[in-house]
Amino acid sequence: MLSKKTQYAFHALIYLAEHVDKGPVLISEIAEKKNISIKFLENILLELKNAGVLGSKKGKGGGYYLLKPPKEVMLARIIRLLDGPIALLPCVSLNYYEKCSNCDETICGLHEVMAKVRDATLKILENKSLKDIVHR
Amino acid sequence: MLSKKTQYAFHALIYLAEHVDKGPVLISEIAEKKNISIKFLENILLELKNAGVLGSKKGKGGGYYLLKPPKEVMLARIIRLLDGPIALLPCVSLNYYEKCSNCDETICGLHEVMAKVRDATLKILENKSLKDIVHR
DNA sequence: TATTTAATCTACCGTTTTTATAGGAAATAT
DNA sequence: ATATTTCCTATAAAAACGGTAGATTAAATA
Fold first, then answer.
1. pTM
2. Which UniProt keywords apply (chains A, B) (predicted)?
3. What domains, with CATH codes, occur in chain A?
């Protein structure tokens, strides 16, 4: 399961994608509309900013905004950023790989199945963007 | 990611599947061969027994054994048993469904994508059994 | 029947992660 | 100046994770 953090991030990003041409959006506005704790959301948006997903502006008329068009922000990127690995096992993770301590990957059937799951998942998440999940 | 608990469970079940016709297997034997803390493994196997996956026998000559042939024990079942939901969001979980607090599922694009991920994952995990992951 | 073996059960414990919250500093607009 | 809003760091409660301890129960066997 995705953490609350990542779930909130998606809702906030959807909101920003929907208001993409209206300049910076207040944290407080997103928090209210999406029913998220404002202080928690503050941390999340800051993290997204430091990762290069969002831009921000301080002071009156300030807020957060997407740095790229929604169609270029892939869902897999957001998940990896906030939740870490998408794979079900460390030994099949592409971005957070760790060697198994108690099995030999070359003969481990579990490894093979979990790699399949990873591929099926990534095929979707790496090809779906914010544009694909905004409300229609 | 799967918890250590579920990962250990898989390794233990693989071991039991490999020794399926040799009667009950000691916890201590599995723990040693698979390099798992014996007390932790004890809890895991007990949980699998209470869920009807394993049988057990006390006393000398005792141990744990599979109640069904390996090909009938599906990977999805084990994960759900020990880790809970397989889906990435509560609102797309088939077995642990919970309503979204901050979105309307009928218009939520995220919901739709995550349902796709769930289906792709389940297509694999509900059709792969212990038999498919024993060492060849 | 006594002994040994091995699962069963309940409870507990320490660490890390998660989910926040608090408050002041820094930047910007007016 | 002042009001606004993000930035940053620290803290904290709660839950999850990973593992331990020890007494109990059941079965085999000598």
1. 0.94
2. DNA-binding
3. 4-66 (1.10.10.10), 74-133 (no CATH)
